Amino acid sequence: MKIVTLHVTIYSFSFTVERKNEVEETRIFKSIYHFLYVLL
């Protein structure tokens, strides 16, 4: 579970660095938060 969380964190971080569409970014962060919420 920690590995999955770490992977998601790295993925979100690299995505933020890329600085793509803000709307797309928000949607992805929402899905990540939802994913972490389900894990916990």
Furnish the topology, listing elements before pairings:
Elements: H1 2-18, H2 22-39
Helix pairs in contact: 1-2
If you had to describe this structure to a student in words, what would you say it looks like?
0% of the residues are buried. The mean pLDDT is 74. This protein is 88% helix and 0% strand. The longest helix is centred in the C-terminal third of the chain and has 18 residues, at 22-39. With 40 residues, the protein is mainly α. Helix 1 packs antiparallel against helix 2. The chain has one domain (2-39).
Radius of gyration: 10 Å
Mean pLDDT: 74
Helix-residue proportion: over 70%
In total, the number of domains comes to 1
Q: Give the biggest sheet.
A: none
Helical element count? Answer: 2
Low-confidence stretches: none
Extended strand count? 0
Strand content: under 5%
**SSE order, as H and E?**
HH
Spatial shape = flat
**How far apart lie the N and C ends?**
10 Å
Tags for this entry?
flat, mainly alpha, 40 residues
Short description, anyone?
The protein has two helices and no strands. The chain has 40 residues and is an all-alpha fold. The protein has one domain (2-39).
